[in-house]
Specification:
By secondary structure, the chain is an alpha+beta fold. It folds into 3 domains: about 110 residues, Orthogonal Bundle (Helix Hairpins), CATH 1.10.287; about 120 residues, Cupredoxins -  blue copper proteins (Immunoglobulin-like); about 90 residues, Immunoglobulin-like, CATH 2.60.40.420. The protein is about 40% helix and about 15% strand. The chain contains 9 helices and 12 strands. Strand 11 and strand 12 form a beta hairpin. The termini are far apart.
Length: about 350
């Protein structure tokens, strides 16, 4: 009996230590530099993410107080009323209910739940029902197995996997409002430092917004299991200054580069199954199942962030997609080495 009580006390102490460690490390995590390639829920850089963090910390404080009170009463009861040798075989004193105590442990939890409900509802309303200003950038995000398609309706731009949006400062507020769609199964759009998770559900449009307060690269992830390569359905959000964003827009609005030096590679592209899935502006390729490749080399990654966008990785991706992304829906093209080299050369010209 004594060993069992000691085990309970030890487990309770371990839980308290874990809670203390979580709270103690959160401020330190918030100081971590996001530029190191890691994402951090404790370092919000957008109004929706900040609102979610504030609510989370509020809930953590409330539940931490509840845990501390319950833990203290538990330890007190274990120590105060532990079994003693002199009490062996004796029935403990019987204590009957107290109306005041029963009212307290009924009313207080109801008040706590009401407070948490109101705080949560207020945050949800502020995030989901925020009005869209005239200066907002509109983007349509479409989830595919296993990559992201981004369309800018007002700008006439279509790209994939790497979302470019402008910074939104107090002097020039430029939030980005996204319409979310799914082309196949359930997905979830999540960039922890910019906004909360929002699901993409077939035949059910959804929306979200973000207003990044600084420039930089922010990493995200599909947060809903959507198939074999769910874990490598990554997101990169590039928050650009006004001049950089305008320069990116101008470059993306240009037609595909036509270089006579890579005409053989273009011919390979246009005479294989590539055109059934991909689109390149100014060519006969008008596929809708795969990413738009018009400005492929303006992206830092391929395969939805699974690999850097280099000639070697591009060659391997075309020759054997399973080597970079097992379970992906892109077929191996079965090209000869000469045709493969020509095709990669053509792909590299698509700036």
């Amino acid at each position: 009996m004594q060993r069992k009580q000691n085990s309970i006390t030890s487990s309770a102490l371990s839980m308290l230590a874990l809670l203390f460690l979580l709270v103690a490390t959160a401020p330190g995590a918030a100081r971590e530099d996001p530029s190191n390639g890691l994402t951090n829920i404790f370092a919000p850089e957008s109004t929706p993410a900040k609102s979610i963090l504030d609510l989370s910390l509020f809930v953590l404080v409330i539940t931490g107080i509840i845990f501390s009170v319950v833990f203290t009463l538990l330890v007190y009861s274990i120590v105060k009323f532990r079994g003693r040798a002199v009490d062996a075989g004796r029935e403990p004193a019987q204590v009957y209910g107290s109306t005041q105590i029963e009212l307290a442990w009924t009313i207080i939890p109801i008040l706590i739940v009401v407070v948490l409900f109101l705080a949560t509802a207020r945050t949800i309303h502020a995030v989901q029902d925020a009005p869209q200003p005239a200066t907002a950038l509109e983007v349509t995000a479409i989830g595919h197995q296993f990559w992201w398609e981004f369309r800018y309706p007002r700008l006439g731009i279509v790209t994939a996997n790497e979302l470019h949006i402008p910074v939104s400062d107090a002097a020039h507020p430029t939030p980005t409002f996204l319409q979310l769609f799914s082309a196949d199964t359930d997905h979830s759009f999540w960039i922890p430092q910019l906004a909360g998770k929002t699901d993409l559900i077939p035949n059910h449009p959804n929306r979200m917004w973000m207003d990044p307060h600084r420039t930089g690269i922010f990493l995200g992830q599909c947060a809903q299991y959507c198939g074999t390569q769910h874990a490598k359905m990554l997101l990169r959000v590039s928050v650009d200054g006004p001049e950089d964003f305008n320069a990116w827009v101008r470059s993306q609005q240009q037609p595909a580069v036509e270089d006579e030096k890579v005409i053989a590679g273009r011919r390979v592209f246009e005479t294989t199954a590539c055109i059934n899935c991909h689109r390149i502006g100014g060519t006969v390729a008008n596929g809708q199942f795969g990413p738009d490749l018009t400005h492929l080399m303006s992206r830092e990654t391929i395969a939805s962030g699974a690999a850097e966008n280099t000639a070697g990785n591009l060659r391997l991706w075309i020759k054997k997609p399973e080597a970079l992304k097992p379970g992906s829906l892109m077929p191996a093209m079965q090209l000869s080495d000469a045709d493969l080299d020509s095709l990669v050369g053509y792909m590299e010209s698509l700036q």
